[in-house]
Amino acid sequence: MVCIRCKMVVKESLSKLGIPFRTIELGEIDVEEILTPSQRELLKSDLVSYGLELMDDKKSVLIERIKNVIIEHVHYTEEPLIINFSTFLSQKLNYDYTYLANLFSEVQGITIEKFIITHKIERVKELLVYNELNLTEIAYQMHYSSVSHLSNQFKKITGLTPSHFKALKEKRRNMLENL
After folding, report:
1. Closest CA to 74 of 117, 134, 132, 135
2. pTM to 2 decimal places
């Protein structure tokens, strides 16, 4: 689960199946009782119908937790970290960062750093589309050291400069208005 809507779908599925739970967090469910094999299958089947999956493998669960911590921080937190992200991730998940990084790379085929950068650029795109902040403000909010650092990463990931990306959005909007 990587979004608020996913949490709502899971909550609805659990309620529909009569499975009592304590909390639902991004990527984790704390159920009140151990699920029976039939409850597990029903839940798994219901979640699949919504495009979600129930993970039992501890490594898969840890990978999902890593992703959720990154997504939560990049998309929903504006406060800068006082410590390195690697330290933050290790403390948050109670695992050595080297282990997390190696596991993530092995399973996902990309590094944690690349995953973070990709999500930061996606967030930058959202902020550019909303058109509420200028590029300097976006760079500051996304904790880039400079606008040029942000621009270079943006171009490396998207193939476009931030201003070209924004111009494409404007052009598309103008084309839609002329229909």
Report:
1. 117
2. 0.71
